[in-house]
Design brief:
324 residues; 13 helices; 13 strands; ABC transporter substrate-binding protein; ABC_transpt-TYRBP-like; Peripla_BP_I
């Protein structure tokens, strides 16, 4: 019994010392691994916000190892192995597939995620309030109900809306379910339109015949958004988006979060783990506050589609033009 208690005591000391060991390290010696699922404006911004925040806190950008999986699941697995084998002090995972790949490979290295809508349903944490695992982070859950309300404000005559998303993305499915309910609550008839990969995006977009379309924060569609918006705009179908970079790439409008700010939140969480000895297990998943959400309207498209912006929205809108 004494041996058992002694062993437990030693184990407890070892476990409790994990975060304090990192906290006692010189900032110039701290190593951080980053895995990003794919390249598109929103995820790039989430990385920038994270890196900028850590540099601001005194950590060296040279000690941040960045890897991009280019939207490939097998690449995620390979990169996850590489990062875990390198034994960094912390890993930052951007987007659900990247986070899931890392979470499978380590239960010891602290993992901070972002651009993950619901870490609990993605099985990264036991609950968003009490993670209970080595994973925590900043959710990119957008105000879907508010976005559907925005659709109705900008397009009062709309009766039907296509909800377009990637069926295999847990994040997208989660948001699509909310969008369908929100559409009905706003007197709209929702029509689900799912894509499986980049090869069927254009054909699915061409099949949309509704009065408007809604796309959540979906990685595959975000990476291919110019093709989607070109097809929808040619058909005169306004697109309400999950986040601002989609609007800048040809969507009509959004009321959504800002991914640089999301990355900054993740960076602040990482700082607490690295410098203050905080543990991912007890750090609740964080969200951007309502004040960080921005109303973004594409001025070019509003004019082309004949959409008149109500005065109440015009006063608080951030106007953009389509990227060339």
């Amino acid at each position: 019994m004494k041996k058992f208690l002694s062993a437990m005591l030693v184990t407890g000391i070892a476990l409790s010392g994990c975060s304090s060991k990192t906290a006692s390290k010189s900032k110039k010696d701290v190593k951080i691994g980053v895995i990003q699922y794919m390249q598109h404006d929103a995820l790039d911004a989430a990385y920038k916000g994270f890196k900028d925040e850590l540099v601001k806190q005194g950590y060296s950008a040279k000690n941040i190892t960045y890897k991009n999986a280019s939207g490939d699941a097998s690449n995620c697995e390979t990169i996850a192995d590489q990062l875990v084998n390198a034994q960094p002090d912390l890993i930052y995972a951007i987007a659900t597939p990247a986070a899931q790949a890392i979470a499978k490979k380590t239960k010891d290295i602290p993992v901070v995620v972002s651009a993950v809508t619901d870490p609990a349903s993605a099985k990264l944490v036991k609950s968003n309030k009490k993670p209970g695992t080595n994973v925590t982070g900043a959710s990119d859950l957008t105000p879907v109900a508010e976005q559907m309300k925005l659709l109705k404000q900008l397009l009062p005559k709309a009766k039907t809306v296509a909800v377009m998303y990637t069926g295999s993305e847990a994040n997208s499915e989660f948001q699509a379910n909310i969008a369908v309910k929100a559409a009905k609550a706003n007197g709209l008839t929702p029509v689900r339109k799912t894509v499986s990969d980049s090869n069927d995006i254009q054909s699915v977009a061409q099949s949309i015949k509704t009065d408007a379309c809604y796309i959540p924060t979906d990685n595959l569609l975000a990476a291919n958004i110019p093709a989607v918006t070109q097809t929808l705009n040619e058909a005169k179908i306004p697109l309400i988006c999950g986040e601002a970079s989609m609007v800048k790439n040809g969507g009509l409008a959004t009321y959504g979060i800002e991914y640089t700010a999301l990355g900054k939140i993740a960076g602040q969480m990482a700082y607490k783990i690295l410098a203050k000895g905080a543990k991912a297990q007890t750090m609740p998943v964080e969200y951007e506050s309502a004040k960080d959400c921005l109303l973004t309207i594409n001025k070019t498209n509003a004019k082309k589609l004949g959409v008149k912006v109500p005065a109440a929205l015009d006063k608080k809108a951030q106007y953009v033009t389509t990227k060339k």
